[in-house]
Amino acid sequence: MMVPVRCFTCGNVVGEHWEEFKARTREAEEPEDPEMVLDELGVERHCCRRMLVSHKDLVDIVAPYQ
Predict the structure, then answer these.
(1) What is the average pLDDT across 32-61?
(2) Is residue 29 part of a domain?
């Protein structure tokens, strides 16, 4: 649903990077490589990267049914 605030595996804060990651990889005119964006954001651990790369934002789809 919503991007988790912390990584499930190590507990590092990853939620603060979601908006910029989404904007730079999906919504830009020329999307950047996700690997490069995560490097620039300082997300180095594989478990934390997975939290951002594999997240699917479903809040807008599910919200009307709550």
Answers:
(1) 91
(2) yes
Q: What is the pLDDT of residues 1-33, one digit of tens each?
A: 688 899 999 999 999 999 999 899 987 678 889
Annotated binding site for Zn(2+): 7, 10, 47-48
Positions at the binding site: 7, 10, 47-48
Q: Which domain holds residue 53?
A: 15-65
Long-range contacts at 36-45 (CB < 8 A, ≥ 24 apart) = 41/17, 43/14, 43/17, 45/7, 45/10, 45/12
Number of independent structural domains in the chain: 1
1 is a domain residue: no
If one compares 29 and 40, the residue with the highest pLDDT of the two is 40
With pLDDT > 90 as the criterion, what percentage of the chain qualifies?
58
